[in-house]
Amino acid sequence: MPIMVMDRGLHIDAGEVRKAFPQETVRDARDAAEALGVCADCEVLVAMAHDVTDELVGAMPRLKYICAMSAGTDRLDTLKNLKADVRITSGRGIHGPQMSELAFLGMIALSREFPRMQQNQRARRWERWPQKLLFGKTVLLVGIGPIAEELALRCEAFGLRVLGVSDARKEAPHFAALYPRSRLKEAAALADFMIVLVPLSDKTRHMIDAEVLAAMKPTGIIVNLARGPVIDEQALIKALQEKRIGGAALDVFETEPPVEDNPLWDMPNVIITPRIGGMSDVYAQQVLPLVVHNLRCFLDGRPSEMKNILRG
């Protein structure tokens, strides 16, 4: 069964897939444009979901299975040429370490005003001020899945009180309390830090709106590692401009990259990262065992044993 491994050299080594399945034909391409020339007979596509194009799936008439290496697969829902019977699995469950570390980068940098320190360094200015600690503060994780579970463990180790928002669960390890989404504003009012982790859907689009932001403490910091449209960006900009919240660390945006005149670029209490939350220097080692497991189950005719089945 021909397998197409499409990656830009950042997430997986096609050679490792060949080693795991020497009896199969494994083709590789750096991107969708390159894959178009060699994908016609492939029945399996291994790729990051956001790199899969409508043109590519349309050029794969025998496609039976997409093994997405990313946790978020909402891009696949927009593809008109993707047949309904194509099985899809995700890379859910491997991103806890890198997402957690980026969350801490945002929390610590904004709490300690690290951008101000960098400006002072460039200006050779020696300025000291009391340093705000994470210890003893409250963090609210909006969306409780594998990433939140790993992040909660790390937050607890830093001495943070961990709260969560989820309609799917009533308790989870390392959380002091969980709230349903209907009590999001109540939970937001308790948080020194609010970290957004929910996937994007019709129900979560602009879930963090003006009312939720208004419920936060004036010193509260929001970290978005989910999808840009989960937060009402215009409401966030207004809250930051009016200093009704303390700051924001944003890895995702409604438009990516943000347009040049987006006010977020120039705000001193905002840290912008270019959608790097899921990336790591060991991604290949993280994702390869999951990819190999799911491919083996699929090729052996054991689809029920595959992990992270989204469809099919």
TrEMBL record:
GO terms for cellular component: cytosol. The keyword Metal-binding does not apply. One of its GO terms (molecular function) is NAD binding. SUPFAM superfamilies: Formate/glycerate dehydrogenase catalytic domain-like, NAD(P)-binding Rossmann-fold domains. It comes from the Bacteria. Residues 23-302 form the D-isomer specific 2-hydroxyacid dehydrogenase catalytic domain. Keywords: Oxidoreductase. Residues 107-277 form the D-isomer specific 2-hydroxyacid dehydrogenase NAD-binding domain. InterPro entries: D-isomer_2-hydroxyacid_DH (IPR050223), D-isomer_2_OHA_DH_cat_dom (IPR006139), D-isomer_DH_CS (IPR029753), D-isomer_DH_NAD-bd (IPR006140), NAD(P)-bd_dom_sf (IPR036291). Belongs to the D-isomer specific 2-hydroxyacid dehydrogenase family. This is D-2-hydroxyacid dehydrogenase. It comes from Pseudolabrys taiwanensis.
